[in-house]
Amino acid sequence: MKELEDYQRPTNVADFVAEVGVDPALGLSRDDAMTRRALYASMQAYQEALPREATVRRRVAAAQGQSASRRMRMDAMSLVYGDVVELKAGDVAGADLRVVECSDDCVVDQTTLVGDDGEDEEAGQGGSRKHVTTDTPPLHIQQDPLRCGNIVPMTASVLQGTAVAVVVSTGDRTLWGRMVTNHEWPPAPGTVLTKKEKGNEEEQTSLIV
């Protein structure tokens, strides 16, 4: 895909078609077209899922040398490890977060990561909607952030309630970032990522529904 200002580049027609990767006499093959369509859809989904802003607490100097906190709205991509983030209904997590405070009714939607199964996490195995808590999860699910109530993964949106959380990972190191890097995102339409247990091990499967 080209930006508007690049439509005339390269100026030479032969160089242009070589860059685009198409023979004008033949056109694209069906497989090439499908591959490019899938890539474009992934890019669109990526842009739509990308968090825009985050509300963070910043320590500032106050009178008599005391410290005070200031609430700031900033670009979500500027979050760093250790940032304290405030979440409310409608917010989208701009990083992987560990919850340190939350209201009893706080719920997040993880559809961007797991697909839409229409179930709560408590009702199924790691559903798209998850109740948020500060409690440390049982040992057997601690390696699965999608099932941990005290973890709000990047791109998850807050459906209701409020929370205060600390950034534990950003960018490519987040669960979402790793899924994108490993070409495991976005989930195919109608796909629900689930976990099934085998003894003490867990296996990730994709269910087409």
UniProtKB/TrEMBL annotation:
A GO cellular component annotation in the UniProt record? plasma membrane
Disordered: region residues:
115-142
Task: Tell me which UniProt keywords the record has, alphabetically.
Answer: Cell membrane, Membrane
Q: Where in the cell is it found?
A: Cell membrane
Which Gene Ontology BP annotations are present? intracellular potassium ion homeostasis; intracellular sodium ion homeostasis; potassium ion import across plasma membrane; proton transmembrane transport; sodium ion export across plasma membrane
GO molecular function, a single term: P-type sodium:potassium-exchanging transporter activity
Residue ranges of domain P-type ATPase A in the record: 69-181
Mitochondrion among keywords: no
- Topological category with respect to the lipid bilayer: Multi-pass membrane protein
Q: Does the keyword Oxidoreductase apply?
A: no
Fetch the Pfam families from UniProt: E1-E2_ATPase
**What is the official name of this protein in its record?**
P-type ATPase A domain-containing protein
